[in-house]
Amino acid sequence: MVQRREKVAFVSHCILNQATRARWEGGGASRERGMFRDVVEVLLSHGVGAVQMGCPEFSLYGNPRPPRSKDGYDIPEFRERCREIAEHACDLMERFLEGTAPPGFRIVAVLGVENSPSCGVVRVSRTVEGEIVSRPGRGHLMDALEAEMRLRGIDVPMIGVSFRPGEREDGLRRLGGLCSGEA
């Protein structure tokens, strides 16, 4: 008899709840209604559950709030909130990993959102000469999560997807590979 392993991904909050993304009077980032459909479809097609991590931006500042870069959130209160969310996520990861005897769980990925000041994995928004621009780097939450995972010896790949059309395909392809066990 073949035992089936359960699979789960830890996902940035706004992937499952677009309502937490920055909104401000007269503007707001383009968004899908509800959930980020492309990511949810990949997870569903591979039978992968989703654990929604907290959003430091929304939990501290709510909505409406103006967009900020990583530099704009580089304050002790925000970094502490990211650390708290990272610790909670790693507590949950350890709970999943404790029961690794078959069928057990496999955490396929931590999924961030590229260009986010909190959840960017490879690209993050930065302030350069007064403008918010995309630059290489990790967001505050992903920095805190990576450090906490390393401290606890948790080895799970971190990948990012972009909400921007034309930039999301590579992240979705990588996610599909990790979900299927091919990556």
Written description of the protein model:
- The protein has a single domain (6-180), classed as 3-Layer(aba) Sandwich (Rossmann fold), CATH 3.40.50.
- Helices cover 37% and strands 22% of the residues.
- It has six helices and eight strands; from the N terminus they run E-H-E-E-H-E-H-H-E-E-E-H-E-H.
- It has helices at 13-16, 37-45, 56-61, 76-98, 140-152, 169-180, and strands at 6-11, 23-24, 27-28, 48-52, 105-113, 123-128, 131-136, 158-161.
- The strands form three sheets. It has a four-stranded parallel beta sheet with strand order 4-1-5-8, with helices on both faces. It has a two-stranded antiparallel sheet with strand order 2-3. The protein has a two-stranded antiparallel sheet with strand order 6-7.
- Helix 2 packs parallel to helix 6 (169-180) and helix 4 (76-98) crosses helix 5 (140-152).
- 35% of the residues are buried.
